Batch of 4 targets.
Target 1
Amino acid sequence: MEILSTALGYVMNFCYKLLHDYGLAIILFTLISKIVLLPVSIWVQKNSIKMVKMQPDINRILIKHYGDKDEIAEEQSKLYKKEKYNPLASLIPLIIQIILLLGVVAVIKDGINEGVANMKFCGYDLTWITTKQWGLSIITPIIAGVSAWLLCVAQNASNVLQAEQSKLNKYGMMIFSVGLSLYLGCFVYAGVALYWTASNIFAILQLYLLNWAINPKNYVDYEALEETKKELAEIEALGTKKGKRNKEDIKREKADYKKFFSVVNKHLVFYSEGSGFYKYFKGIIEYILNNTNITIHYVTSDPDDQIFRIAEKESKIKPYYIGEKKLITLMMKMDADVVVMTMPDIENYHIKRSYIRKDINYVYVPHGMDSLNMTMRTGSMDHYDSVLCTGKIQKEEIEKTEEVYNLPKKELVEWGYSLLDEMREDYAKMPKKENDIKSILIAPSWQKDNIVDSCLEDILDNLKGHGYKITVRPHPQHVRHMPEKMERLKERYKDDTDIEIQTDFSSNSTVFEADLMITDWSGIAYEYAYTTCKPVLFIDTPMKIMNPEYKKIGIEPLNIWMRYEIGRVLKLDEIDKTADTAAKMLAASDTYKDSIDQFVKEYVYNLGSSASVGAKYIIQEIQKAIKRHKEQE
């Protein structure tokens, strides 16, 4: 440090002799240090650009190997070596700044002790230390703090690396820098604070000059950066969607993850997002269990999934709890012959196909009988190998989509809908109504501008007094997110004995007992009409379209035209006709029964036997895989 202070002392003395003002000498000394260190600053600028340029690739690594810290570290290291990036480079300016600061402190201290210069600058004594000379010297820490704040503002907005940091990082660094500057301003000579202030101001000028000379926009793909940041943020958000997990669930997940990969030669894996999805697999799973020796590995992201209770009685089901974050890694390392899912958009977002095996048959099971083309995102089926189609409309939509977008052909299985078969069977066993009072069920969707949000009270006011038993069964999301609104509805109609606002969804009996359903675009309409062969009155609220390109394939979605086949449609300005329309539809119930039954038989595959059809296809694919493995041995 003595050698450094001696060298800096020569430079400072040169500046003082040139300007005859110690304050101006400090400012000139600061400028000279910036010029001398310019090559280092240019190197740091290029290194920072390189880092931000790599960030989309780093984000892709984080997405691809999410949760696998070892793999992420290894891939990042390879990327750094490939791009010749030094992650420690950003520390160099800070280290140099600290060394210079210590040197300047020594130089100014020597100057004071030896009295080699006039220490006045614009009437201000550069030998003052605020904590020892209160009064005018209080300006010192204020000026130093303001200069640090200005530098942080400039860096947060324009420094190629700092601009991409999180708000916590940006404002954390700002608080630290301003705090450090205030501290220095209070405890060091005013001359040192002047150097610090000048250094900050010159750093701001240098920042904009370097951005002009070496513009980051010429090197960084900011569009790709934003896309990967958004995708990574979606994955990060998964862990908070269902709240924090307890320690037992985290420990359980770790054990199940290890257990899943300890099993070799897995033939069949089902994945369920939650307990409510088991009903879509139930018929297929039961057929496989009753007719084969195949072990079913059932992965769920719900720690309370009913599959765990079912597995206690069925040894051929092996359940695993894997949370949504850990699922990303599990799916990338998947090793099985057939994977069955109800989740669309595999490969399009965070859930990917296996990187371990390329011959897995991914089978998509729809959880609705409506249009896949309109109610799913563009390309939602593109990366599945097989789709179990509920009816000929779904099959035609996928075939036409493959033709229009020039996609590889998938295996389209004429399956049906196992849940519908089960519901029709249960409905046939239900006891007949003991009275002649007609019941109407209002079952809205959760999409924007649904019945609850737009016209529910008008419908109720129009229907009451006509002798109907009216039940409002809001979507579960309404009950969850709008409890106050549901309570207000209950309060308003508490004295109307013919109106019930039902928020308990434990039973489906209310659905199937109704003589008429009123809904908007809810998928419950299919289940109700296809099961009971009773009509549905549709309120024409704005349609929810997940795929803006749905018209491109030239097939009108079932969701639109089917409404006129199994019921009638009222526009929003026709709500005053609800009671009259309902009366006419109830009077024609026998006609509707025959026409809806015929419609279901025409547009739903394998009515009454879809479970065996879906199961046999999966069994066949497993047998093909086993044969293929033997041939490769």
Note: The chain is about 55% helix and 10% strand.
Target 2
Amino acid sequence: MNNKGKMNENSKNEQLEQFRVRDEGEKLTTNQGLKVSEDEFSLKAGERGPTLMEDFHFREKMTHFDHERIPERIVHARGFAAHGEFEVYESMKKYTKAKFLQDPSVKTPVFVRFSTVAGSRGSAETVRDVRGFATKFYTEEGNYDLVGNNIPVFFIQDAIKFPDLIHAVKPEPHNEIPQAASAHDTFWDFVANNQESAHMVMWHLSDRAIPRSFRMMEGFGVHTFRLVNEEGKAHFVKFHWKPVLGVHSLVWDEAQKIAGKDPDFHRRDLWESIEGGLFPEYELGVQLIAEEDEFSFDFDVLDPTKLWPEEDVPVKIIGKMTLNRNVDNVFAETEQVAFHPGHVVPGIDFTNDPLLQGRLFSYTDTQLLRLGGPNFHELPINRPVCPFHNNQRDGFGRQTINVGQVSYHKNSLASNTPAPVSEDEGGYVHYQEKVEGRKVQSRSESFKDHFSQAAMFWNSMSEPEKEHIIDAFSFELGKVKSKSVQQQVVDMFANVSVELATAFALAIGAMPPQKGGSQVTKSSPALSQLNTKKLPNTRKVGVIIGTDFKGEDVLNVCNALIAEGIQVEVISDKLGNQKAFDGTELKVDHTFLTCDSVLFDAIYAAGGKGVSQKFKEEAAYFIQEAFSHYKAIGATFEGKNWLQEEVMANSPGVVIEDQDMSVFAQNFGQAISAHRHWNRQLVK
């Protein structure tokens, strides 16, 4: 790496360092720097008298506490974030003049916030929902924000309907129920009466809406943007984040249980992975369409309810992002970070996607309320790493002390500075697209196909994924009280698949569709998670051991799994060290009370001769639950007796061995890599 690359990599961290305050070992003061002698008792008129208003320390402390909260985001309130770096693999000069996409030796600092959409800030993280995937690049040309989701399309085509969508999916206003859930009347009434949502609903009810972790979640820019090169030539572009670990999900029963067992499951996973040096990695990909080919497809490239099938428009992988540092303070960074799709750099521009156009207004408007005024760009987490100079002044929370008498353009008193910058010197110039037409409130005819890509998505799913979608429809609509809304949704999704609509209609007691069906036979293998990467890296295995387990053999298995990148955590009936019959000891990380099988990717029943009946029952419950969620199960020695052998012994993903531990470890590792063993589902 050259010096330039190293400097850019460290610039944001060095900038943040000046704002970090470490209180450990310091003396207590007020916010004005006055040393405080007493922080237990307020100032009173006598020991039993009233508190006096002159106690400025009490008033300062309480006033600050009373004002510590800011309005939570209307959407994406529940989020977690991390710092990292991005490096491009090869120069993208052919397509864009954006400098951070030119030099592979330069590492650009990034800050990434993951989130759920519908729930409040205190809601659980494993709910069925869209996930936000927002990335702030601190480039030498200014901040660039790629503000996307883990689903490549959206519910609506025009931003004017966004308030309606959110009002519908949020808790119903008369009773503020349900929290962080779409399984209620108003959401499905919106869907049935706004049928452009069909494609997004298919994604929302698929496994994509309950990701295993942020580390195993795809990201999409959603909208069509433009890349513009030095010659002024533009390409339409869609952005993709491809997780190096592949795209993996929870199962619905598991997701619901995790919401109770560990509502912080996703943020804990991200935090612990980074703290443990298991840095999440994502490759940046782009789909590119030449402007002259805008009308060469059977979809409108500007329609946010449509994707570009990867088989038709391949994804070109151009770089990698690594998240390698946790935040120092969640409020100061994660809560105060302000993303905006309008934060761009030269070489990246917008299109006439009507949903994107509305977002370009809405994001700034939201930050003005949440962060108290127009100076949110001066908060440490939002400050660009390059200098910024303009004639903006004053306002709430201003941190810059602007000197001099001039704050306007044009001027002669300051030699007309700060001065505009020409395009040749790096000034941003909007792409000169020819625009003409009458002022109308309407939509292009090419936006009116609401079902073909929803049908393509259904066609692309594996049999287990299709069953999950049917179950999701059955659950969601089973919670809807209105029979009319239920029937409307059945009839609507008959346009996607009569098979699908009939299956969930029967499950909810509605009338199966009398007409409908789709003529679309096209599929896109890239849409099925069956075709994702399957790696053992960072998978978490719960190892259940009891007194007098076979120490050396179990240790050898654990070490072999760790060598494959698998995380091993020991479970028993009490904390401390569990002793093997040969004197070996293993530290116990969890008890049956403090953890649950849903918090692991696989379970290894390692055995132990000196266990009670209660221990066996607890172990059997762990194993049975993991088995029902299609996870890998390993069993050796006495651990085999904790399985329901007549059900599990010959099932896919169940590995049993008590002779050759090296063979067992290898086979069990392969079973863990598969993520889930859906063949059990198909056998049922």
Note: The chain has a mean pLDDT of 94.
Target 3
Amino acid sequence: MTAQSRASAEVLIVGGGPVGMGLAIELGQRGITVLVVEKYPSPQPVPKGQNLTQRTMEHFHFWGIEDQLRAARTIPRDYGIGGLTAYGTLLGDYHYDWLQRELVRPYYYTDNERLPQYATEAVLRARAAQLPSVTTLFGWSCIETEQNAASASATIVNRETGEQKIVSALYLVGCDGSKSVVRESAGIVQDRSDHDRLMVLLVFKSKTLHDLLARFPGKSFYNVLHPDLEGYWQFFGRVDLGDTWFFHAPVPLGTTEDNFDFASYLHKAVGAEFDVSFDHIGFWDLRVAIARNYNKGRIFIAGDAAHSHPPYGGYGINTGLEDARNLGWKLAATIKGWAGEELLATYDEERRPVFASTAKDFIEKSIENDKAFLAAFNPKHDRAAFEAEWTSRGSGARGEVNAYEPNYAGSSIVFGPNNAICNANGTHSDVARPGHHLTPKTLSDGRNIYEALGSGYTLLALGEDNLIAAEFAQAASILGIPLTVIADHGEGECGLYGAHYILIRPDQFVSWTGNSVSPGEASDILARAVAIDRQANLKERYA
């Protein structure tokens, strides 16, 4: 072992994939010094994590790289990025549109996007390199972590030279994937739900397949439901609009690269033969895993290090990037001294139940629903009944009452309803609701409110009375909380929010709404929003 040395930062991030780099940017833009340790010198060319939701694109907007990300897209903008579900084979008789995300577009500031994860990572790396407070160490792996009451550290090794050194920071965040060294080294336990399925990931080239699927213009991913697979998908996706594809599907346990005819499997799933040239053949176990805690002391985990699930529905990368936004502003607030001692604990309080709900209520439920459908309906046995049910599924008539709408209504730092819980079930609404994402609306001056939000907390004050807004501003100044006040006449779209005063968090979730406050209440509201013990804070400031 070579001599060990130390480097320091306020936050040390192990893992420089999308979640790690997104967190680094979130912190770096807030003036926090960050060190990122990433084992790969360049992004790995495996096309995963392709679907980026409208909410995720809001993150890229606030990170200043929305345009750059869209420019990196590998499928022409005018082609479309929609998907479809097919029965039996991809070229069979039954299809319907799938993941119609445009239905929720009015509730978000940005359009969704689709591009390979390695292209997303390249944009994130370029942005991080522009931030003077972010330092990166590419080609280094973490082998161990330690912490004490004041700091956390990682022993890292250069993958090329074998050199080892110790790097330290006030806080350490593991964004190092489902086999996280940080999680294991910190002693954070995972719970797993194993579906006992081995899955293959194929990356291949085929110009003929592109020609075969020309009948589905504007589609770039395709989900095949086959009765033999009992609800588990065969999933095709375009990497570009030429000849590169990827394919996920179950394979028999014990399958290896050498003992299975993958070309025939592809042909059967499509329903036709076509040329195939494989670039990558890999395997993964289909399971849901979630850490029992998202932190231990000064060590935190995010993204796949904290939770992992089958790549069904495009939740994975989006969930991880939401972790980064949630944890990022809380770490920055804590380091800069305007947060209470318990604010960082709300990262686990908010994000862990949202993932648990995502896995149970959407991913696993989708598998169960598809399995039940395939068992009950078959066009060979009862064509009329099958077609009626298929049409209902495609039209959304068999959809759930609640939508995928992650929210923190039960969080201790938002003013949600009594007995509310943090989860992924919800409904989209124009009304501003504590714990829910703020729907963008146009202000009286013509700007979208998302163009006016501050980097800290924001108070939207609607109407002519500015006294309450002034009280919030004064209270924020005393407590040291950065607060932007947006005063608006309240006419037009903003009236749909349903309240005169709306307190908005740095991650665009609503903290509190109201039409009035009693004397001193503004201070109490702000203190709770950042987990401050107000009396203790005031004693400290005026001691």
Note: The chain has three domains: 6-74+115-189+292-339, 81-113+192-288, 429-541.
Target 4
Amino acid sequence: MSSTKNNMSKIQKKVKSKQLMIGAENKEIEFSNEPQNILAILNYGLLNGIKTEILIDRVNEITSLLDLILPNKSYCFLKFQSCDEAAKVLTELNGIKLWTDGYPVLMSFCKSIPKYQDYLNEEPSGLIILLDFVTDEIEKKLIALLKWDECKMKNRQVQHFGYEFIYGQNTVDYRKPLERKLPPECDELWTIFDTKCPKFKGFRPDQLTVNKYERGSGIPAHCDTHSVFEDPIISLSLSASIVMEFKDPVNGKHCSILLPKKSLLIMSSESRYGWLHGITPKNSDIVKTKHNLMTVQQRELRYSFTFRKLRIPPSCDCKFPLLCDIQSKIVNEQNSNNDHEVDQKLAAKLELENVHNVYNEIGNHFSETRHSAWPNVENFIMSLIEGSILLDAGCGNGKYLNINDKITKLGFDRSSTLLQVCNERNFQVFQSDCLQIPIINDSIDACISIAVIHHLATHDRRVQAIREMLRVLRKKGQALIYVWAKDQQKDNKKTRYLLQHQSKDIEKVNKLPEMAILNIDEEKIELPIHKNRTQFKSSNMLVPWKLKQKEIPEEQHKIFLRYYHVFEDGELENLCKECGNVEIVRSYYDQGNHCVILKKL
């Protein structure tokens, strides 16, 4: 009995501490000791890896959840129909670990919370969903005509009719029509369409892409090329429902739209031209029931029939230049899973404090742990023809400058400590920043960037780094880029990073707080601190490094925090495509890293 009381006392102390921190940050949040119909989860939110499906399922085992409010913070709120229901959840779950790799959740009643903007209701204009668009008979007929003997994507199968849809560019070549036209079985859809959607009466597509989505698969956020396709673009969901995510890249607004089985999605005007849309790969979706309660819906095998009408010749004068291929070269921005980056003006200073200065401090110790070349990187370097010039952009201790004696190798790095190691090894190196490489245009045969770009703190800076490599490459020159992947487990196999033994040093590092508040140029930046040898919970975070020094007692060893942006699946490829004038020769996943080989066109 006494141990239970002690445990509850510890939980209450932690709750009180969190209340003080959150209350100091936002005065509109008023906590209460008396039951209220709103519960705050004080230590989990969008910024630190909340597992919403697990949370909702667990809460719904106790009572019905009315709403889950997720501000862009490390806390969130649960709303119930009554105070008694909220009290039941707090009694059963407060201080309980809800997922195996997490901490016990800390809960508190809330008397009032701010009026957070409800992004889920902020749909883009021009978005239309027609429910029960087709009958069961038509659905079976359409699915039956498909033959899955051709194109298989990474996580789905596709078929094209009329014109082949070019993935990555999100376009078609109107000069190369396919012999296979749209199936005549689709003709009866347009009679239904004219009746149910008179606004676009007469719309007749000439291109169809059919996707077969296995459970758990998705598609990266994208915007179909403006100049090639007319307005609207429509998509029919068959066999199962899905939640599609929409994001406005201008202001970060987003919404989650349920597409029920047999429904027709119509994207026109703003939803067509100004927002990105995609499907997050996962096994379930959070939806609301007909009684407006939150629940988790398991995904199933789904088919989507996406119909488009080509605009020939291509042209566009829309009001959404950010995603327009005619008015701007910025396309295919990757959805960041609600994980916001730092402000542009603070990015360089954050990198200086939590990347460059850190590596100057830990450089020698870091070098001792970096001695083996990655096999695929070594193969790339060995494949270069005799006499080639290779540039290692961010060479570190130069471990890749010792490969292939038949080529000329140059390297640069920002860290003077690591460059000193290179000089001691007689490598040809110089100090530079990857955003401004002091080498003339079109002068390098090949370039490698291994574990560098993920230290850049904004999307634009990461794009700039790739553009600089392409600038110094000769025509048809190739670049190999490695970045740390957010997902450290592929095909149910853990990477070496996750499997590596957790030493006492790692255990001590992992006792750091969940969040760090950095004071950068009189501005405060809040970032989650990664727990070493675990899955990443956020895209932008601080990764600890414990500096071992023989002459200093172990308890005095310093811990440094390095900034990382870990990459979602497909994000690196989209960055490269955004640079233009490039061909992706190969894209692969290598022991917890996303990797691409580029060719300059």
Note: The first strand starts at residue 30 and ends at 32.
